Amino acid sequence: MRLIIVRHGDPNYEIDSLTEKGWREAEFLSVRMEKQLQKEHTYIYTSPLGRAKDTASLTLKKLGMTATEFKWLREFEAPAIDEDTGTYKVCWDLLPARWTSEPAYYDKDQWMNTPFMKKAKADTESAWVYDGLDSLLKKHGYTRENGYYRAEHSNRDTIVLFCHFGVECVMLGHLLGISPVVLWHGTAAAPSSVTTLYTEERREGIASFRMQSFGDQSHLYAADEPASFAARFCETYDNNEERHD
């Protein structure tokens, strides 16, 4: 099985859609997807949020397909008051000096048990995503068993998920056995980027997921379209044109 996770295009959060650039990104992405996906072996799922559905819409139109929405694919919501700033912060925007000082954040099983994450109810939110993803994979033939998947119906189908960076990292953490906190703060999947994983069944009936590429933007490079800055913070502190908080 191939699992493709797509982040939505450059977002216009005010209207929960895409910017003009985001629509260009979605178009270039759809050209790529049309070449790479075989309709009869592809299943497409989307977040219920507009920016993800709009991104998927151009690919769906080219393929002549429809998508199924899952609420658990919406952006990961687990905000809480950050003691450093006194403001609400989402899980993936903690300051480096805060999260790196707590060993639990590096632990795939304990990251949600820190004081901040408990206030944010990250355990409940992450369990919802884990259960949703595992239910979907089971539907397609792979049942979670310990840290791997029982291949009850091995296949070469492709599952495509149009969603968001925060929830993408939660899913990747679950599949790869990594704390999503490390992924949230140590990686940045740019808008319209594509992450691809494949199952490997080295023993019959026992499968695990392996990531072949993360945050791939080759469809933008091919079209001479620059990557969006969204998901990143300022490269140097003195650059006031780039996001700091």
From TrEMBL:
Stretch forming the signal peptide: none
- What domain of life? Bacteria
InterPro entries noted in UniProt: His_Pase_superF_clade-1 (IPR013078), His_PPase_superfam (IPR029033)
Put simply, this protein is called: Phosphoglycerate mutase family protein
What is the organism field in this record?
Answer: Anthropogastromicrobium aceti
